[in-house]
Amino acid sequence: MGRQVPVAAAAIAYGWWDTGVLPFTTSSYLLIAVPIVFVFGAYVAKGGLLRPSSTSAELEGDGKDATLRHPSAWWTLMVLAIILEVLGLALGGRSTIVPTLRTTFDRLLVNHFERELVFLAWLAVGLSPLMRNRRRRPERRA
Known about the structure:
Layout: H1 4-19, H2 26-45, H3 55-59, H4 71-90, H5 101-108, H6 112-135
Helix pairs in contact: 1-6, 2-6
């Protein structure tokens, strides 16, 4: 717990700095690359790219314990998002009835504070598998 507070504060400060830079510039691309390289490096260090996925084991189950951790829930959400996007684009791309992801994010990314929240959410999604694996440390067999 003691180490998480400074790490969270550093992520918030870095996100505030990053989201304040003019978009589509070299510095903005470099600032966004730093967390990508950091998270990718953490995955490599943990051996996450070499271990077989547990997805096949989850899919072999009978589905009684389907949760948001189960891939089918995320596939369903992705398909629904794609359907909404296609429908919004079919209505001309600027529909007030069915907004596209672009129109939604355009409205969301107007203010610096909102860009910061999106940045932190993006960072949390990237770090979540690492944090889950950290909490679920397997017992070592002798």
